[in-house]
Structure formats: C-alpha cells, structure tokens
Amino acid sequence: MRSKGQVPNSKGSHKTEREFGGTLGAICIPILLPLTVLFLICVSRSPDAAVVQWPPPFPSLDQLWDPLAPILLLGWISLHAFLYLLPFGKVSEGLVLRDGTRLKYPINGFLSLCLSAALLTLLLMLKAPLGHLYQLMLPLAVCAMGISFVLSVYLYVSSFWAPPHALALGGNTGNPLYDFFIGRELNPRLGHFDLKYFCELRPGLIGWVVINFGMLMQEVELRGSPSLAMVLVNSFQLLYVADALWNEEAVLSTMDIVHDGFGFMLVFGDLTWVPFTYSLQAAFLVEHPQALSALGGATIIILNGIGYYIFRKSNSQKNQFRRNPKHPSVSTLETIATATGKRLLVSGWWGLVRHPNYLGDLLMALAWSLPCGFSHLLPYFYVIYFTILLVHREARDERHCRAKYGLAWDNYCRRVPYRILPYIY
Ligand code: NDP
To answer: Whose CA is nearest to atom 23 of ligand 1?
Structure first.
C-alpha cells in the first residue's frame, strides 16, 4: 500500500511528503546541529554550566584544533573498520529489499566492543593519559563534524551510480539539499562493507563510552578517585551500548536500516551527535562534582534497572515475534491480522502501549541524568532531547505503519490507545 502524497517515478520512488521541516530543515539543521554540539561541550566545562548565559560560551579557534584529534579519530574509525571485516561471528541476512534480495551483515559488534575494552585496558597498563580526552573533546568533535560532512557529500554523489531500486523511498525528491540531508541511497556499500550498518553501532557508539571513560580518568587525575555519580553514568551507558551490540542483529529491522536513506542526518547522528552529546553528563561531572548518597545511588540504579527491563523485554518480544511468531515465548500472545500477511501484537508489552521500548529507553535516560543532581539543566539535555526525538520518531513510525497496515493499524490504535506512557500519552 502506498501512502498519501507518494508518487513513483522512473528513477525509483519519489515522495513529495518531506520530513524534518523539508528544505528549510535540510538547510538549517546541518548548520545548527554542529553549533549546538560545540555550544553544549563549552557549557559543560564552563564554571557555572548555565545553558542560558550571555555571551554564550563559544570556543576560541585555537581551542577547536589539535593535530592529535584527526589522528586519533581516523585511527579509531580505521580500527573499527578492520574489526568489522574480521571473519568472526555469524553473518545475518537483512530484511527483503524491494528487488527481492537480502543483504548479508556481519554480527561481530560485541566482539569489537570487547576488543576496544582490551585496548583501553592495555593503554591503562601502559599509563597512557586517557584523561587527556577531556582536553581533546572540542578538537575531536570538530574532526568528527568534518568527517560527517565529507562522508555525506560522498554518499550523495555516489548515490547517482546506484540502481533505482537501491534508493530510499523518501530520499529521492530531486531537491539536492533535502536529498543530501535525508539520504538518497538506502544501503550504500563499498564491496561488502555496509557504510550505514557500520556507522550505526560502531565508531560513534563505542566512541561514546570511550569518551565517558576518558572523563572518568580525568576525574581520577583531578580528585584521586572516581565519584559515585561518574561511576553510575559510565556503568549505565556502558550497559546500554553493550546491550545494543549484544543484540546487534535487531538493528537490521529498525527504521534506520530498513527505511531511511544514508545521508547527513544519520551520518552526523552516528558519528558526531551520539559520541559528543550523549557523553555530556560525564563531561559535566568532571568540572561539577556531585555528592550522591548511597540511598540516592541505589534509587537511581533501581530506576535504570526498571527502564532497562522494559526496554529489553519489549524489544526482544517484538524481535522474537517478527523472526518466529510460532516461538513458545510469543505464540500465545494475542495478535491481529493485517492485509500484508504480517500480524500485529495486541497483548504482552505491545498491548500496554504502542511503543513500550521507548518508555523503557526514556526511564533509562532519566536515570543517566539524575546522578548529576538538580542544580543544572545541562545534564538533563539528553532526556529532554531524547523525549522530543522519540515523540517525533513515534509519529514517523505511526505514519509508516498506517501506510503499511491501513485499517489493521487503526484497529491496533483503538485496542492500544496510548503511545508511550500508559494513561498519559
Ligand atoms: P521499533 O523497534 O519501535 O520498531 C517499530 C516497528 O515495529 C514498526 O515500524 C513495526 O514494523 C513494528 N511494530 C510496531 N507495532 C507492532 C506491534 N504491535 N506488533 C508487532 N510489530 C510492531 O523502532 P525504532 O527503530 O524506533 O526503535 C528501536 C529501539 O531503538 C527502541 O528501543 C528505541 O528506544 C531505540 N532508539 C534509541 C535511539 C538512541 O539514540 N538512543 C534512537 C532511536 C531509537 P513492522 O510491522 O514492519 O515489523
């Protein structure tokens, strides 16, 4: 079934309906997002860490550049490209593409995380100054932005050599600014090396926890030992990244892989936004230590545990159901039929709200901010931004599902009226 406003053309599929504010969004977002990243890093290390201050704490040019930054960043990306290519772990097939074929993907991201941890341990034993990552945050972020722009230009240009069926449904509008931003090609590859799949879960995501660890080491240098708040932030976020990589196969059925083209939006998100804004809580704690009681810490651990439980159980339930609906763990759940032949769960986690996985994710996001106390807004940036992202993402997914499942989706919405938060939203 084709959604309203979608017009096919000879080059694949055109879609007139545009997301993220259309052309205006495609012009403004690539300018505003890099400035936001620099601004937030500067705020996190400024003495009062105030999000609203005049003049805003922008960096001087010499703070933005360090010759070590491109070496470290390119070395890191190359290391992960090498690990991606190692012939270990299983090889999985993605969902069926429009031409009826399925791409193969190596499932060895967790191994990459373990080898990265082994490398960090080795560097620690060699007494490498890992806390120096704190001083390098701005130059590293600038280099990540440069790499994101260069890669996005390459992806846009190379997409013109891709066959029509390889283009993303929403990324082939003919407007160069919008297509550059949203991504033309669905699964750009260099030989067997899948650029989108690689960027989604590896250099940026693992880079995020490495930056966190650098912040922890900087705290050790400054104050002799890591604080409880820093240990919690590091542990919670490491659990999140390890979980994503342990369940790497599940990414193959996400909106990012299945639906979105690979353009500036995803490239910047994966390589710059995630590592340099998701690590803000740890960066904040370096200059703004927080006293956290054992009881406060225990309460936050419980909150993170509940969030993680909901997040993991609901994601696993849907993945299991999509992979094998006859599996004993899901075969007894109530479902409704759709015209596509696929069924929708209406009991279990997916009968509670339409996005139980987002609910769990948001509870965890809150637990990552709470160790930073209540005196500043900055550590809550992630949970605020993430709420906006997931509400927007839910609306996008809802549109796609309504287009895909029609009346069956409306029926599901009637049966499960709340989107993310039971009885509230
Ligand atoms: P979801 O895993 O929520 O998948 C949505 C898809 O699930 C729908 O398109 C539909 O696809 C299927 N579905 C929806 N309802 C049902 C149902 N009742 N029964 C069966 N299938 C259903 O997509 P996301 O990619 O948005 O999220 C994946 C995870 O990643 C989430 O936990 C999210 O919180 C997290 N996330 C984290 C981000 C971060 O930056 N930390 C960013 C984005 C996401 P179909 O029917 O075709 O199978």
So the answer is: 254
**What amino acid occupies position 218?**
Q
The secondary structure of residue 346, as a DSSP letter, is -
**Which amino acid belongs to residue 425?**
Y
Number of C-beta neighbours around residue 87 at 10 A: 7
Going from the Cα of 391 to the center of ligand 1, the distance in angstroms, rounded, reads: 12
**Contact call for residues 229 and 287 (beta carbons, < 8 A):** no
In this structure, what token pair is assigned to residue 342? 């696929």
Ligand 1 site residues (CB inside 6 A) read 254-255, 311, 315, 318, 321-322, 342, 344-345, 350, 355, 357-358, 361, 393, 397, 400-401, 412
CB 29 within 8 A of CB 273: no
Reported as a single tens digit per residue, the pLDDT across 202-221 is: 999 999 999 999 999 999 99
**In 3-state terms, what secondary structure has residue 337?**
strand
Instruction: Report which secondary-structure segment, H or E, holds 93.
Output: strand 90-93
- Which residues, in sequence order, are CB contacts of 157 under 8 Å at separation 6+? none
- Tens of pLDDT, residue by residue over 327-384, are 998 899 999 999 988 999 999 999 999 999 999 999 999 999 999 999 999 999 999 9
Q: What is the pLDDT of residues 386-418, one digit of tens each?
A: 999 999 999 988 998 999 999 999 999 999 999
Q: Whose CA is nearest to atom 29 of ligand 1?
A: 357
Query: What atom of ligand 1 comes closest to residue 269's alpha carbon?
Result: 40
Give backbone dihedrals phi and psi of 329, rounded to 5 degrees, phi first. Answer: -70, -15
300 phi, psi to nearest 5 deg: -65, -35
pLDDT category, 19, cuts 50, 70, 90? Answer: confident
For residues 57 and 43, is the Cβ–Cβ distance under 8 A?
Answer: yes
End-to-end CA distance of the chain: 28
* Beta-strand relationship, 189-190 and 193-194: antiparallel
Q: What is the position in ligand 1's atom list of the atom closest to the CA of 342?
A: 46
Residue 177 CB-density burial (10 A; 0-12 exposed, 13-18 middle, 19+ buried): middle
Measured CA to CA, the distance from residue 334 to residue 348 in angstroms comes to: 8
Between the CA of residue 420 and those of 86, 168, 362, 382, what are the distances in Å? Answer: 39, 28, 10, 18
* Coil, helix or strand at residue 170: coil
Encoded tokens for 80? 């992960």
Distance 253 CA to ligand 1 centre (A): 8
Helices (H), 324-380: 349-352, 356-369
